[in-house]
């Protein structure tokens, strides 16, 4: 399954599960273990868990089972490892605290030039 198909299925599943603020980050140039980080917000720990379960099930249904799913008993964050994509479903408070989008954003060429001049 190519990365675009993975991305499309994840986003569709997140949308169908009513996840909010879905962000797809291309991290190909930033890390060696995955190509995409997909981050979404759930409204409660129950919603976070059910949304993560829905993503995992969508891939099981097409015989592409996730490599792993991580969550606690009352999760504020569920991680679904699909190999070439890692999905993070988080409560609003967890997402605000960890700010994964900032962590995985590559600096733009202009930012690098400005940083070198400083």
UniProtKB/TrEMBL annotation:
<keyword id="KW-0810">Translation regulation</keyword>
<dbReference type="InterPro" id="IPR043519">
    <property type="entry name" value="NT_sf"/>
</dbReference>
<dbReference type="GO" id="GO:0017148">
    <property type="term" value="P:negative regulation of translation"/>
</dbReference>
<comment type="subunit">
    <text>Interacts with ribosomal protein uL14 (rplN).</text>
</comment>
<keyword id="KW-0963">Cytoplasm</keyword>
<dbReference type="GO" id="GO:0090071">
    <property type="term" value="P:negative regulation of ribosome biogenesis"/>
</dbReference>
<dbReference type="GO" id="GO:0043023">
    <property type="term" value="F:ribosomal large subunit binding"/>
</dbReference>
<comment type="similarity">
    <text>Belongs to the Iojap/RsfS family.</text>
</comment>
<dbReference type="InterPro" id="IPR004394">
    <property type="entry name" value="Iojap/RsfS/C7orf30"/>
</dbReference>
<dbReference type="Pfam" id="PF02410">
    <property type="entry name" value="RsfS"/>
</dbReference>
<keyword id="KW-0678">Repressor</keyword>
<dbReference type="GO" id="GO:0042256">
    <property type="term" value="P:cytosolic ribosome assembly"/>
</dbReference>
<dbReference type="GO" id="GO:0005737">
    <property type="term" value="C:cytoplasm"/>
</dbReference>
<protein>
    <recommendedName>
        <fullName>Ribosomal silencing factor RsfS</fullName>
    </recommendedName>
</protein>
<comment type="function">
    <text>Functions as a ribosomal silencing factor. Interacts with ribosomal protein uL14 (rplN), blocking formation of intersubunit bridge B8. Prevents association of the 30S and 50S ribosomal subunits and the formation of functional ribosomes, thus repressing translation.</text>
</comment>
